[in-house]
Design goal:
GO terms for molecular function: methyltransferase activity. Keywords: Cobalamin biosynthesis, Methyltransferase, S-adenosyl-L-methionine, Transferase. One of its GO terms (biological process) is cobalamin biosynthetic process. The chain has 575 residues and is α/β, with parallel strands linked by helices. The protein has five domains: 10-121, Rossmann fold (3-Layer(aba) Sandwich); 138-202, no CATH class; 207-330, Nucleotidyltransferase, domain 5, CATH 3.30.420.180; 334-441, Cobalt-precorrin-4 Transmethylase, domain 1, CATH 3.40.1010; 444-566, Tetrapyrrole methylase, C-terminal domain (Methyltransferase, Cobalt-precorrin-4 Transmethylase, Domain 2). The chain is built from 18 helices and 29 strands. Strands 2-1-3-4-5-6 form a six-stranded mixed beta sheet, with helices on both faces. A five-stranded mixed beta sheet has the order 7-11-10-8-9, with helices on one face. Strand 12 (207-213), helix 7 and strand 13 form a beta-alpha-beta unit. Helix 7 crosses helix 8, helix 14 crosses helix 15 (422-428) and helix 17 runs parallel beside helix 18 (501-510). The two termini are 51 Å apart.
Length: 575
């Protein structure tokens, strides 16, 4: 649940020419990073500390420690600090590893400088999720419960309802699995909890406060009412997901100031949308003034995404002279990440794909694809594996797990949206689920890179499998690609049971193209046993092709240049 983007304001501090060169590398990649200039390095470091979200110091670790030690205040507000040595061999996450994003920043710096990230926080060292990295506010005995998780002691997970948490280790067990009431506890709730030395509390984003106000309402009046209402019903403001109001109040300074102080988004709805929500306390006076019988209650129920049927009104409208507040609790929504793993090689797997796999509590996929990523999954991840031909069952299983409120990753080879698992899954996924698509490097792109530049102009992807598409439909599409003179890529080109379709498709193309049109066959692109074969429409032997292959047939413009397929783009500067 951590943010993979670098902080908004990064201050770079360097004392030597080598350090400044490394800083230049970072500023080239991150326009929001800047080198801090001052009379002394210590002054530069203090300036960066005061004005930046993160500091990257190209200095000795000891020097940085001595300079920043007097500046330390609170890990929740102090900037992250990463230290890089003179030779850029190591990027050390010195401060703010979790709360400030220092660990992630060290990894990003290491990637840009070809260095090794040095991360010493205990949970990261043993590949467990830190409680302060789950993306939600965490309160209470965080250090004690984190230590218990690390030490393998029993920790009871008690949640008001199912929330899409990432995988937690086996010693963190749900309350119904471990009914004992002693020991350490991890609570997931929006309710106020009396503090104790053995309980940590995760605050899910479950609450929405709806606000209505008269023009010119003071911010203090809005804030006081909001906090008083939450306190009276025992709800913690750390679980606020957003504040919602009518769009005509979007520029109301008192509301905006309150929202800014809370650090949550302001969501606005039109009077028409608000008027369509059934509320317990409608007002004709309000309707006459703003065009809807309810602002606070209706906005609280609509919440951030307009799904009032997912919400329960906890506090009806409560008013002061100029402000009105209502509070709704929104049910958790499951999370389904549809993840493309790329063509096979680990270094062609995107960082976002890895992040989603590590965020998921349940990972669903084909057995051979799961084998590729088991080393990425966190301890405690539940894996649902099945074999070839079970695509529909995998899609249904992933959606069912997400609909139950869990964080799920459904994996596919290449890009999950290209002849893979995204479309069958999204046929079943309804509005109860948040869906995240994670693109991957397709087999066609991997094959194209190995062959040269065959995809430099318009091209068409076609699957020759007639298991789901009748052959007469496939034949019409191949004919259209031939007549349109597209570079044509064949997926699922040939299997033991389907050994004639590729020859038929090549014959259709040959009727519209020269016999010497280049054809490339790539088998196991980026995987062990990778093979690249170049031929022509006249010479290709379909027998060398199987289901692990991608076949790329050039257009009339495609040619071989130095043994590589090239389809010219036709840039004018070439003429």
């Amino acid at each position: 649940m951590t943010d993979q983007n670098p902080p908004a304001r990064i201050g770079l501090v360097a004392a030597t020419a080598a350090g400044r060169r490394h800083a230049d590398t970072l500023t080239a990649a991150w326009p929001h990073a800047r080198l801090i200039e001052a009379q002394t390095v210590a002054d530069a470091l203090r300036t960066a500390w005061a004005g930046c979200d993160a500091v990257i110091a190209f200095l000795a670790t000891g020097a940085v420690v001595r300079i920043v030690a007097p500046l330390l205040d609170d890990k929740r507000t102090d900037p992250a600090v990463v230290v890089v040595d003179e030779a850029a061999r190591h990027a050390v996450a010195l401060l703010g590893g979790h709360a400030g994003g220092g660990n992630a920043l060290a990894e990003q710096v290491a990637g840009l400088l070809d260095a090794r990230p040095v991360i010493t926080t205990a949970t990261d060292a043993v590949d467990l999720p830190g409680l302060d990295t789950l993306g939600w506010p965490v309160q209470g005995a965080v250090a004690a419960v984190s230590r218990a998780i690390l030490d393998g002691e029993p920790v009871r997970l008690i949640a008001d309802t199912d929330w899409p948490l990432p995988a937690l280790p086996p010693n963190v067990r749900a309350a119904d699995e471990d009914p004992t009431d002693d020991g350490y506890r991890l609570l997931v709730t929006d309710r106020v909890v009396p503090p104790d030395e053995r309980t940590a509390v995760l605050r899910p984003p479950s609450l929405v406060v709806g606000v209505g106000a008269s023009r010119g309402v003071p911010a203090a009046e809005v804030a006081e009412l909001l906090h008083r209402v939450l306190a009276e019903v025992g709800l913690d403001p750390a679980s606020l997901r957003c504040v919602a109001t009518a769009d005509i109040k979007a520029d109301e300074a008192g509301i905006r100031s309150t929202v800014d102080a809370l650090g949550v988004p302001l969501v606005t709805w039109s009077a028409t949308r608000l008027a369509a929500v059934d509320v317990p306390h409608p007002s004709e006076v309000v309707r006459a003034a703003v065009g809807t019988p309810s602002v606070a209650e209706a906005a609280a129920l609509l919440g951030p995404d307009g799904r009032a049927d997912d919400a329960t009104l906890l506090v009806g409208k409560t008013a002061t002279a100029m402000a009105t507040v209502a509070v709704a609790r929104h049910a958790p929504r499951g999370r389904l990440a549809v993840v493309g793993l790329g063509p096979g090689a680990a270094d062609l797997r995107t960082p976002r794909a890895v992040a989603e796999l590590r965020r998921a509590a349940v990972v669903v996929g084909l057995d051979q694809y799961l084998d590729q990523v088991r080393d990425v999954l966190r301890p405690g991840t539940r894996v649902l594996s099945s074999g070839l031909g079970a695509e529909e069952a995998r899609a249904r299983a992933a959606v069912a797990e997400a609909a139950a409120g869990r964080a799920v990753a459904l994996i596919g080879s290449g890009d999950a949206g290209v002849y893979a698992m995204a479309s069958p899954a999204l046929e079943y996924a309804d509005e109860r689920i948040d869906v995240v698509g994670v693109p991957g490097v397709t087999a066609a792109l991997a094959a194209g890179a190995l062959l040269g530049a065959p995809l430099g102009h318009d091209h068409a992807y076609l699957s020759l499998s007639d298991l789901h598409t009748p052959w007469d439909v496939i034949e019409r599409r191949v004919t259209a690609a031939a007549e349109g003179d597209f570079v044509t890529l064949f997926y699922n080109p040939r299997s033991r049971a389907r050994d004639w379709q590729l020859g038929k498709a090549l014959g259709i193309l040959a009727a519209h193209r020269s016999p010497d049109t280049p054809v490339g066959v790539v088998r196991n692109a980026s995987r062990p046993g990778e093979q690249v074969h170049l031929a022509t429409l006249a010479t290709l032997d379909p027998a060398i092709v199987d289901m692990y292959s991608v076949v790329v047939v050039g257009s009339s413009d495609t040619r071989l240049v130095a043994g590589r397929m090239v389809t010219p783009r036709g840039y004018r500067w070439r003429s």
